[in-house]
Automatic annotation (TrEMBL):
It is found in: Cell membrane. The chain crosses the membrane at residues 12-32, 52-71. Pfam families: DUF3817 (PF12823). It is a multi-pass membrane protein. Residues 8-100 form the DUF3817 domain. PANTHER family: MEMBRANE PROTEIN (PTHR40077:SF1), MEMBRANE PROTEIN-RELATED (PTHR40077). This is DUF3817 domain-containing protein. GO terms for cellular component: plasma membrane. Keywords: Cell membrane, Membrane, Transmembrane, Transmembrane helix.
Amino acid sequence: MNPAVVRTVFRTVAIAEAFSWGLLLVAMFFKWILDAEPLGLAEGGVPVAGPIHGGIFMLYVLTAVIAKFVFRWDAKTLVVALASSIPPFATVWFERKADREGRLTAQAGATSAP
């Protein structure tokens, strides 16, 4: 796999996962705090935002596992990447940290073959 493509996909999915967290939090706010149905969405939009976030979350997990092999992450890095998907917006923090530390670049001796 091309490391540049994996890096771009990982970064995009990390940002999308954080954005979907925000969408779900807003929907839960409308449902539980305001008891409102904005734009006619039932239960504050949670039935819409929940599956969107769930799908992007699963894509993030898959992308993190692929990145582990492409960038030769150790187990600790993978665990931190996966754990960052639990608190809201932490995937962006992890992506930026990993980029600063050079964990989103191919290491010497890494192959681009599948």
